[in-house]
Fold:
Amino acid sequence: MTSYLDDNRGLMSWLATRDHKRIGIMFLIATSGALLLGGVFALVLRIELLDPGKLFLSAMDYNRMFTHHGVVMVFLFMVPVIPSVFGNFFLPIMLGAPDLAFPRLNLASFYVYCAGAVIMIAAMWFGGIDTGWTFYAPYSTTSPTAVAAGTFGVFVVGVSSILTGVNFIATTHTMRAKGMRWTGMPLFVWSIYATAIIQVLATPVLGLSVLLVAVDHAWSLGIFDPDMGGDPVLFQHLFWFYSHPAVYIMILPAMGVVSEVVCTFSRNPPASYRAIALSSLGIAFIGFLTWGHHMFVAGMSLFDIGAFGILSMFVAIFSAIKVFTWTATLRHGAVWVTTPMLYFFGFMFLFVFGGMTGVALATSSLDIHWHDTYFVVAHFHFIMVGGTLTMYLAALHYWFPKMFGRMYPRRWSIVGATAVILGFIFTFTPQFLLGNAGMPRRYWSYPADYQWLHILSTAGASILAMGLALNFGYLVWALFRGPRAERNPWSSRSYEWLAPTPPPLHNFDEPLVIRRGPYDYHLPE
Amino acid sequence: MTDRHRDPTLGDAGKHRLALGAVLALQYLSLGLHLVGFDGYPVVALVLAGTMVVISASVFMDLRWALAPTRLVAVLAVLYLGLLCLGVAGDVAFR
Amino acid sequence: MTVSEPGPARELVREADVQFENLARQAHAVRFGIWVFLASELLLFAGLFALYTAYRTEYSAGFIEGIRHAELAIGTINTSLLVISSYTAAAALRAIRRDAPRATLAWLGVTLALGIVFLALKGLEYSHHAADGALPGAYYAFRELPGHGGQLFFTLYYFMTGLHVLHLAAAVLVLAWLAWRVSRRRTTAAYHADLEGGVLYWHLVDCIWIFLYPLFYLLA
Structure:
C-alpha cells in the first residue's frame, strides 16, 4: 500500500488534505518555524544581557524582545506542538481509527493557527509588543505598541487550540477500535485526552481576557483601568485561569511521551497503568484550582492567597505519582539506552528539579522573595524546556521512523541530545542563583555583581542553540538520506507500531483488531 | 469499541410545551418578584434563572436522555464557570 | 416557502464519512463534539460573569442604579422571544426526525424570525442608551448616573450583551444555512446531525441570555 507521503503528490494535495498525518506534518513545519523564531528572540536577549549596561538594544526594544520570545514560544510552540504534531499523527493510529472524528475541522484548525500566527508576527514586526507575554493591565491597555493586534492574534491561535481539543475529545470517545476499552488505550492517548479537556475549558477564558485587552487598547473600554474604576488584578484572574492550566497543556503531552518511551525502552508495562492514566485526569482538573499562586503579591485577598497556596500543593502530587511510576517501570526492565531514553533521563532530572522549585514558589511566604525574579524564570524554563522540549525531541526521535520511514544517524543524535541537555543546564541553573540573589526578571540592565552568572547563562544558551541546530540538521538530512526504517525498529508493543512504516492513507491495511494490551511485553510481538 | 451511542428519542411534543410553559412562568415569576422587591431577591432571581436553564437544557437540549459523557461535559462547564467566579469573589470580597 | 416533497430520484443518499462505520456513529460523534464545543462557548462568557461578580461587589449601588435605568420592557419581551424560539427550534428537530421537511422549515423560519426580532429590539435598546450618553468605557457620559459604578455597569452591559448579540447573529446565520440544507434535502431524517448541532447552539445562546436578563434587568 502506498504510504501517506506518496499518496497523491503535489503542494495542493497537502494544503487541502484531510489526512491527520499530513496535517500533523504541516504543524511540525509551522511549529519548527515558531521554535526558531522564539529561539532567535531568546538569543538576542541573552546576548544583550552579557553586559550590565546597553550592548545594542534600547530598553524598550529589550522589552519587545522578551515579550516576543514569550508570546511566540508559549502560543505558537509550546501549547500546540506535541498535541498538534504527535497528537494529530498518532491519536487515530493508536486508537485503530482511520482518521480523527472531524478531519475538515482538523485542517481548519491548522489554517486558523496560521492566521493567528501571521497576525501575531505582523504585530511584532509593525510596532512590536512590550508588555511581557502576560499582557498585564493597565500597562497593556495603554502601551504605545501594537498590543491590540498582537492580542487579537493570540485570540485567533486560541481558537485553533479549542478546535483541536474538541476533535481529540470526540475522537477518543467515539472512535476506539473494536475491543479497546478506556483502560486499554496507550497512555499517550490519555495524556492527549486530558490535555484536550484543558484546551476546551481554559482557552476560552484566555480568549476573553486578551479580547478585553485588545478592545480596551483600541477603544478605551477601561474595564481594567483604575482611572475608570477598573481593577487591574481582575485581568490577572482571567489571564491566569487559563495560563496556569496552560502549563499543564504544555507538560501533559510530554508526560504522555515519557510513558511511551519508558515502556518501550525498558520492555516493561507501566508499573501502574491506572496511576498514570488517572493522574493525567487529576492534573487536568485540579490544575484549574491553582491559578492564584501567580498573584500572591498582586494585591489579592489573604483568603485567596491561603486557598490557592494550599490547592497548589495538591497538584504536585499527581506529577509525583507519575515520576515514581515511571521510575518503578524501569525496575527489572531490559533498559535500552536510545536517544529518546537519553532525553527521558534528562527529563527526569530537570522536570523533578524544576517541579520542586515550583512547589517552593507556591509557598506564598517564599514567593514574596522570588516573585518576578529570575528564580521564577529558571523554574518555568526547567519545566518547559527541561521537561517539554526534551520530550518533544524524544518524541521526534522515537516516532521519526514511523512517520517518515527512515532512521536518523545514532551518533549525531547522541551528540545533539548531550548538547541540548548540557546547554540547558548551563543556561538556566545560573538563573536560579541570579533570582535568589535578587535579580528581577525582564530587566534590561543590572548591577555588575550579577554579570558572571549572566555570562554563564548566555554561554549555556549558545550550546543549547547549537544542540538544537544539530538536531534540525541531521533530522532533515535523515528525511532524505537516512536508511529505510523497518515497521517496528524499537520492538514496541504500542499500537501505532502495528501500522505500516510509514502508514498508508487510512493508517491500517486492515481494520485493527485488539488482541493484546499496548504494553504486553511478556507476549511475543 | 466506542462509547455506546444512542439515537435521541423523538421527544414528546407535549413535554416540550410543558417545558415552555414552565420556563415562561418562571420568567414572569421572577419579574413579578422583582417588581414587588424584597431583601434577598437577587439570590431568588439567580435560582429561578438556574431552574429555567436546567429545564431548557434537559428538555430542549435532550440532556434528559443523553449519555453520561454528554451530561458530564455540561456539568463540568458550569462547574468551572462557577470556579472562576468563586476565585474572583474570594479575592474581591475579602480584600 | 413552497418546497416539493422529496422523491427517490431527488433525495441525496448519504454515506457515512470514511472514518465512521455508519451514519449513526457519525451522528453520535457530531452531537458529542458539538456539546464539547458548547462547553468552550460557555467558558468564553465565564470571565465576564466573573467580572460582573467582582464589580457588582465593589460598586453595588452603581450597579443597582444602573439596573433601574434598564429598559425592562424590551428586556422582558426579548427574554420571552428567545425562550419561545428555543421551543420552536426543538420543534424543528422533532419535525425532521419524523421526516417532515416542510414542517421543519416552518419551525426554523419562526425561530429565525424570533431571533431577528430580538436583534432588532436590542439595537433599539442600544440606541436609547446611546442617546442618553450611556456608552461603554471612556465614552460614558450618562448624566443621570455619574461615577465609576454606572460606568462599569454599562461597560459590562455593552460587552456582555454585545458578545451575546454576536453569538445570536452567528446562530441566525447557521440556522439559515441549515434551513437551506433542509430545503435542498441535504439534511434529512436519515442524517441531520448538522441541524442538531445548530439547534443545540441556538439553545446555548438562549440559556446564556436567561442569565443575562436578571443580571442587567432584574437584580435590583
About this structure: Confidence is low (pLDDT under 50) at residues 1-10 of chain C. The helical segments of chain C are 23-58, 60-68, 72-97, 101-131, 148-183, 193-218. The interface with chain A takes residues 17-20, 25, 28-30, 32-33, 36-37, 39-48, 50-51, 54-55, 58-59, 136-140, 147-149, 151-152, 155-156, 159 of chain C (CB under 8 Å).
